[in-house]
Amino acid sequence: MSKRGKAQKSKLKIPSAPVADQKRTGNPDALLPSANNSGDCICWRFKHLDREGPWGLAHLTHEQVQTLLADMVQFESQTINELFHQGGWPGKCHDVHTLPNKAALERLDALGIPDMTKIWKLRIGGAGRLWGFLVGHVFHIVWWDPRHEVWPSLKKHT
């Protein structure tokens, strides 16, 4: 204890790391498992998530959100090539103007992103689709479509 009766804080030993702009930075490759290849794998952005529309997350239960996130975590170990360029599944790309659901096109207008030319989807489960825009390896999530309504299947029971 110090002269005033307060316990002294012990200094933590800071591991050596590069210094940038007078701040010590850690090495993510050493600190986070799988970080060394994260530049190649898919990652998520939620900025453009349609919160008000029919395919938002607001209507999901806690358990449904947990299940969706667990499925998304499984995709994080895969590269964009593995997800979208292997013959159609689990991911596919469509021209926005070919979306058969006019409500989906109207929602893109309402969200202020009608000028996008390609929209991407990831199949999760049977009918579930995660829709968004792919920029590099970043998937910008727009919709969670658990009933396959954005692009309805012509096949029965799918």
Structural topology:
Blueprint: E1 19-20, E2 23-24, H1 28-31, E3 43-45, H2 62-75, H3 80-84, E4 91-95, H4 102-111, E5 118-124, E6 128-135, E7 138-145
Cα shape: elongated
Q: How many distinct beta strands?
A: 7
Give the mean pLDDT. 83
Spatial arrangement of strands, main beta sheet: 3-7-6-5-4
* Run of helices and strands: EEHEHHEHEEE
Task: Report strand %.
Answer: 15-25%
State the helix count. 4
SS class: alpha+beta
Helix content: 10-25%
- Major sheet characteristics: 5 strands, mixed
Which radius of gyration do the C-alpha atoms yield? 22 Å
Low-confidence stretches: none
- Cα distance spanning the termini: 69 Å
Structural write-up:
The mean pLDDT is 83. It contains 4 helices and 7 strands. The protein has helices at residues 28-31, 62-75, 80-84, 102-111, and strands at residues 19-20, 23-24, 43-45, 91-95, 118-124, 128-135, 138-145. The strands form 2 sheets. Strands 3-7-6-5-4 form a 5-stranded mixed sheet. By secondary structure, the chain is α+β, with helices and mostly antiparallel strands. The protein is elongated. Strand 1 (19-20) and strand 2 form a beta hairpin.
